[in-house]
Amino acid sequence: MASGGGAENVGRLQGQVPAEVQVSKSLMQVLGASFIMVALIACADEGGGSAASHAALTDCNSDPAYTQASVSITNKGSQAADYEILVSFENHANGNQLETGVGVARALAPGQKTNVSVSNPKWFFKVDAVDCKIADVQRIAR
User: Fold this and answer.
1) How far apart are CA 87 and CA 101, in angstroms?
2) Residue 137 is part of which domain span?
3) Dist. CA 110–CA 48, nearest whole Å
4) How far apart are alpha carbons 130 and 124 in whole angstroms?
5) pLDDT bucket at 99, cuts 50 / 70 / 90
6) pTM for the full model?
């Protein structure tokens, strides 16, 4: 067997990374970070702020049959968008979540405002008073 066999080469290469690989790895890290930054900036610019800032609870009406939340949505972005609003219905006495409901607004143009109603049957809750809270807002640019 010739001198400089496999075990000797493996020992020599352990812990050493060729310069080309080090440069490639560093370049990929920089490019990856740059891509993420560009994506975040584009999303923030397009969205006109966080999606939650586009929605506001305007009413929480509880009558004997239904609890209904009214949510006002304003598209603050620069493109048309769809919105999905998750409303949490909570027990007024202890704050425990009883149920959630979803409201949807489709194809809101930039600057356009609309109202969405989200309701649940009150008999389902079996409590006297219910509070409404916006739990989440999703904005999908078209």
Assistant:
1) 5
2) 51-141
3) 10
4) 11
5) confident
6) 0.64
